[in-house]
Amino acid sequence: MTTTRMRTPLKSILPGLRTSIFLGPMANAAGGTLAGKVSKAGGLGFIGAGYYTAEKMKDELNKALAILGVQQQDSSQQKHPRVHLGIGFLTWRLTVLNNGKKPSSKEAEDDNSPAIQLIDAALRINPIAIWLSFGDEEEMIGWSSVVRKRDALLNGDHGPENQVKLFIGIGNEKQARSGVEDCGADVLIIQGNEAGGHGLGSSPPLSAIVPLLANKLDSGTYKITNPSQSVPPLLGAGGIMTGANMAGVLAMGADGVVVGTRMLMTPEAAYSDAQKKMLIEAGPTSTLRTMAFDEARNTLGWPEGVDGRGLVNDTVNDYMSNKGGDGDARRAVYKEAEKSGDTSRIVTWAGTGVGLVHEIKDADEIVAEMTRDCRKSIEHLAEGLKQFQ
């Protein structure tokens, strides 16, 4: 028998939050500067540490901490305040860094493992949140457990209410159940098919999956296993570029939104000027889900069923038409294009909402603008409904 339970308000989980906007942890794009700016503006910024080393992690964290005005804290001090900042990891990459060992094996938690060192580098600043995504079920469950254990080891026992918050990224209902029941998610993020960058190719659009998951969370369908025994809030990710988009996803039943592509169009994003220019000039039909870019860059270690949405260009066209021979030949062409600065082949991840915005703006301005416009959209909707009362 299911029991209705209230989802935990985001503000009670993340006391530093002033708006329900979250920066997606985009690898090679969302560094410390961008994440710090979003967090300082009242959202929650996530550093995309997917391909980082421990040293790179420290450098990017220092950038974010400087923006937030936070000094590095001694992890031996008990119960010091958590930093309003998040770090995102690709779980399959953690396994690669861990010499291919999944964290279910006892020997996998070696302090000298590059994966453990990377996680520890992130946890030593005592962040409020860690985001895990893109792994098979064993990896997601195992690395969730490792993060909790390493946090307790490095930062002490904060009690169930104040432990690091575990954000679990998922692409369908099956993954949602495992995220809540097996990984102990404090926050659940559903990434729809509209999202730019990597995602589960078979994911439904947000309009179909957000209401479904909201209902299951609210009806008590899932067994809650996070430390505070609280029903996880639900975030929607994919195609969200404006305050009106944000209002729509909240109306479907989400508690907050993850913004990716819009934040690439900022001075703080680690994208090149050429990539940002292409995003500004793109239209609503400029993106496609494909394995073309992963083939070209030889980044083929993603879990089964995952592909990537980006701007269509010559790399995509050659892949779709099987032009230029096999994958090795196309990889050689791509490498040459990188060397020569040929922007007609460059990888530029982008979601379906890319054609809605055509300007570069500071990240903090975007957070304020989207929050303001979201409120206006909700007020407009409420006014419109009054005529039917």
Automatic annotation (TrEMBL):
<dbReference type="GO" id="GO:0018580">
    <property type="term" value="F:nitronate monooxygenase activity"/>
</dbReference>
<keyword id="KW-0285">Flavoprotein</keyword>
<dbReference type="InterPro" id="IPR013785">
    <property type="entry name" value="Aldolase_TIM"/>
</dbReference>
<keyword id="KW-0223">Dioxygenase</keyword>
<protein>
    <submittedName>
        <fullName>2-nitropropane dioxygenase</fullName>
    </submittedName>
</protein>
<keyword id="KW-0288">FMN</keyword>
<dbReference type="Pfam" id="PF03060">
    <property type="entry name" value="NMO"/>
</dbReference>
<dbReference type="InterPro" id="IPR004136">
    <property type="entry name" value="NMO"/>
</dbReference>
<keyword id="KW-0560">Oxidoreductase</keyword>
<dbReference type="GO" id="GO:0051213">
    <property type="term" value="F:dioxygenase activity"/>
</dbReference>
